[in-house]
Protein 1
Amino acid sequence: MTSTPALLLVEDDPELSGMLSGLFGDEGYLVDVARDGQRGLHLGLTKQYDVMVLDRGLPAVEGLDLLTRLRRSGVHTPVLILSALSNPADRVDGLDAGAEDYLGKPFDLDELLARLRALLRRSSDSSEVLAVLGGRLDVSTRSVQLTDGREVPLTDREAALLDVLARNPRRIFSRADLLDTVFDGSGEDNLVDTYVHYLRRKLGRRVVVTVRGLGYRSGRP
Ligand code: CA
């Protein structure tokens, strides 16, 4: 995490999103605002944030659906849901969809800010590292630290693919499995091959092993 944490706010209410983005800016966050779920999904997948604040009732892509899609694409940024749907069952749905925290509307501004600070503290404590052939994948920064000390930055999709393979080093994944897990089931099978190619170009041929007729697995670290 940098000293200026990047925050994505996905909130369609113009008054609330204006007020919150001003508040977050005053607190030292670098704020991007998305006013619908589609835009939120696009920003969440393409830019790197330290924390996200998500509304649930959103145009285009509903908040929990947005969250599920981010998590399936390997985006592990801490998420706080801010929603008028705030009975216990709603909160359970939100947390089960992958949110780290849930605050009902109306809410107290100081409590919201304190919860965001707590999320940032927790995520900077628990940066996750996975062994890959020739180095270590830092899940939070989406980069591979090679054994010779060099750091290789990955794109979100490259990191998500390597994450899935490295988390299950003994498992052979079919292209369809990977397409579903990493690419949300959209696209052609050769999308997986393309990203395997990108990973090999950055990290060496053996980082991903082709298992003929079956698919791919992680190179043995
Ligand atoms: Ca809303």
Protein 2
Amino acid sequence: MRSEMEKDILKVLVTEEELKQRVTEMGAELYEKFEGKNPLFLGVLKGSFVFVADLMRACQLKSNIEFIAVSSYENATESSGRVRINYDLQQDITGRHLVIVEDILDSGNTLAFLKQYFLAKGAASITIVTLLDKPARREKAVTADLAGFTIPDEFVVGYGLDYAQRYRNVPYIGVLKPEVYSNH
Ligand code: PRP
């Protein structure tokens, strides 16, 4: 397939095939855990939109989906530490079993904030699912209950993840060439 973005990618970290296989496994694991429990999948936008769509289809549970949009990176490659809600929950989550779906767990600022926020809103339980885990950069004591891939401390794009709102539609997880940042 032709791609305008391919020339900006230095290397592929996780291929499309690896993503597909792992997401299938994660879906099966969640099925075992939540069968009969009617969980509420909670996609953290924007980054998780690709992953949550694939994960939900890989997990044929009777379940619902809800979204919240937050941001903390403000066009930078490092978290500012301040989490801003750009789009809030549209339903009552009291008593629900939440499956928070993230594309990446990095500093932990986003998930530390969201966990508190959802517990305060009355969630019965919180399960954190992240496609990518970057433990080297953790600032807050947050751990994922289920993680797809542990990755090194490199800034990654694709499969929902952006740099300056671009590259979200790259179908694999890749690392950008350094000149892409310096030209920004
Ligand atoms: C990214 C990502 C996670 C968060 C993880 O979101 O989608 O939500 O950062 O990083 P952390 O563990 O350091 O908090 P971002 O703020 O870039 O917004 P986006 O999802 O709209 O891209």
